[in-house]
Amino acid sequence: MSQAIKYVQRVNLDSLLPYVGAVILVLLASFAYPKVLSADYLLQQLQIAAFLGVLAAGATIVILLGHIDLSVPWILSGAAILSTALVGSGNPFLAAIAIPAALAFGVIFGIVNGFGVAILRIPSMVWTLAVNSMLLGLAVLNTGGFNPKGESSALMSWLATGRVLGIPSSLLVWLALCLLLTLMMSRTAFGRYLRSIGFNEKATFLSGVSTPSVVFAAFALAGTCSALGGVLLAGYADQAYQSMGDPYLLPTIAAVVIGGTSILGGRGGLFGTIGGAIFITLLTSILSVMQISEAWRSIIFGTIIILMLLFQTLRKGAMK
Q1: Which of 4, 217, 244, 264 has a CA positioned 20 to 30 A from the CA of residue 83?
Q2: How many domains does the chain have?
Q3: Of the candidates 226, 269, 249, which has an alpha carbon nearest to the alpha carbon of residue 64?
Q4: Nearest Cα to Cα of residue 60 among 212, 259, 312, 281
């Protein structure tokens, strides 16, 4: 019983850490730049955090399995290119199915990832990186290396930049997605199997669970989230462009791990990931507002993330 209480406390503290870090960041920055405390600035940051948060939500599911998805950049970019190309085709029917087609694109390549990991038993880091490279090659063949032609639809733009009662619509999409996934992971067998596989895949399989099916479903959901992130970013920029997903790979994984989800699988959740996405977005924005050079921004960004991870690791060791 005492072990169970310690486990719950540890999870709660891990998931709260990025929120505490975000509050500290804002308070410290407010001394030099008071505008960071304004509602407009904070809502803008939440809008931007939603793009990262959608990607991190899918990554959380895969990392809970004890795997990792490195195909996020080009599933995102591919979905953005596909959706904007369909809208820019001038065909009303193709424009109408732009978002469903982009999400289907994510599902398909999520299933491809699941096939390599669950059936071929190739390490997820290697397989998903290869899929990412393959998608890059397909995009270059399709566009000739130039930025793709196309534009976002009115719905894509509204999802990314619109507001509902003053609240960014992208934030509402992100929170709705996280709520749906949280219910799925807490109230269905899939959620139990997900964590169980992360703790011990072999034992879960021997207990009668179809572990390949769970892996397929997890990677398909992650692919869908990556594709949705691509749709939102295309709507925000009103276009797709080459490598638009590349800057999101490290922050996506960092948001999940900072939020308390174990990179080894089995422990964590979306509440912490939401905080991780907010923390990373605020950190990036505040460093930019302070007009720190790109080199120093990268150094500070990496150092703060490492310190937060070290804090988590040391505290976990002390609680064992």
Answers
A1: 217
A2: 1
A3: 269
A4: 259
**CA–CA distance, 52 with 56 (Å, rounded to integer):** 6
Q: Specify whether the CB–CB gap between 174 and 182 falls below 8 A.
A: no
Residue that is written with structure tokens 């540890």 in the block:
10
CATH number, position 292: 1.10.3470
Q: Which residue has the tokens 């609680």?
A: 319
C-alpha–C-alpha distance, residues 297 and 312, integer Å: 23
Query: Which residues are registered as beta bridge partners of 164?
Result: 167
Sequence length of the chain is: 320
Rounded to the nearest angstrom, the gap between the alpha carbon of residue 146 and the centroid of all alpha carbons in its chain is: 27
The closest alpha carbon to 289, from 21, 8, 1, 32, belongs to 32
- pLDDT one-digit tens code per residue, 228-266: 999 999 999 988 888 888 889 989 998 998 888 888 888
The string of pLDDT tens digits covering residues 172-229 is 999 999 999 999 988 899 988 998 998 888 888 888 888 999 999 999 999 999 999 9
* Gap between the Cα atoms of 142 and 198, Å rounded: 38
Q: Which residue, 273, 296, 317, 315, is CA-closest to 50? A: 273
HSE (side-chain half, CA atoms, 13 Å) at 281: 23
In sequence order, which residues have a C-beta less than 8 Å from that of residue 17 and are 6 or more positions away? Answer: 258, 259, 260, 272, 275, 308, 311, 312
The whole domain housing 24 covers 2-319
The pTM of this model reads 0.91
